[in-house]
Amino acid sequence: MRPLPISSTELQARIARAQRLMRDYNLDALLLPAGTSLRYFTGVRWSLSERLLAAVLPAEGPPRFVAPAFEEPKVRQLVSIGDEVRVWQEDESPFEVVAGLLSDLNAKRVGLEETTPYAFVRGLAAAAPSIEWADAVPVVSGCRMHKSAAEIEIIRYAMNLTLDVHRQTHQSLRPGVRTTDIAGEIDRLHRAAGADDGSTFCIVAFGPSTAFPHGPDGVQSLAEGDTVLVDTGCTVHGYHADMTRTYVFGDPSARQREVWNIEREAQQAAFAVIQPGVPCSAVDDAARAVLTRHGLGPDYRTPGLPHRTGHGLGMDIHERPYMVRGNNLPLAPGMVGSIEPMICVYGELGVRLEDHFYVTDSGAVWFTQPSPAIDSPFGA
């Protein structure tokens, strides 16, 4: 059954948590520009553009909104928490409007959400020179990293939707099919299954081009014996799915099977170390230890793993926490992340198996079961 979207009650709880953290970090307000953090805290879905549209969240009380005047009717339809919308005309400075709002709130120290464009930061600093602008990451990520039960269920639904699209894609492969044809069909399948907007992205690669982590340039056609890598996802209620499967079209060679089995061993080793309190870096360390034992790497060298082992996921496809060397942030219940210790052998093949986990009080749980074997990538 399709899960319900995030409720107004949960939005209110997020705001309350953020305000507690703001007091801990001595912030009088947060500025949330258009984007996923705005939607996360207020429910307002709006894409970032050159025109400033934002919410100002004070340490006490409801959010206040700043918007272009011609967008006010639409914004008021979207706002469900708070009712103040201050507007600016095309020949006026939106930053002066924000400065006036902050002055009315008596805000002295204001946190900036990390995706705030530099042009906005520069304009705000000029319009409100007495404000101390601070990093809002401890507050925003302090909320967003810890998923609720409702968020977990939405992500689980989205992941299983994408897993089924992967299965159908695997079954439909035929000699000569082009990477672009497959990507188009994956988008159609996501839309038919009820994803928000079809595929959010799609990487399809064959043969030696599977070694490029973010896919090759140009179009390829499938041939017998090719390694096949498909990495795709969608969103449901604004929450991402992201999953990679690698297999062979036809019978795997001994070499393809060898590399694939090492990749799976590394993925499983990374998963096994996840517990509350364990640093994020330990997940990366566990995967690399397996690769090094098999003569790959070391470190970021190839053949081997040239990037981090995993990333957090939620309303952004890549968000905190990151499973990377040096990240001592302790894992905690509710955190969500990928495990994808891709093996890149440039000029030959690449293998990435990507599944996501969430942390519970007793360890990690997969959203989707990983591939069991190269010649049975989706099990029985």
TrEMBL record:
EC nos: 3.4.-.-
Source superkingdom: Bacteria
InterPro entries xref list: Creatin/AminoP/Spt16_N (IPR029149), Creatinase/aminopeptidase-like (IPR036005), Creatinase_N (IPR000587), Pept_M24 (IPR000994), Peptidase_M24B (IPR050659), Peptidase_M24B_aminopep-P_CS (IPR001131)
An example Gene Ontology molecular-function term: metallopeptidase activity
Gene Ontology biological process terms in this record: proteolysis
Similarity-based family: Belongs to the peptidase M24B family.
PANTHER family: AMINOPEPTIDASE (PTHR46112), AMINOPEPTIDASE YPDF (PTHR46112:SF3)
Record protein name field: Putative peptidase
Protein's organism: Pirellulimonas nuda
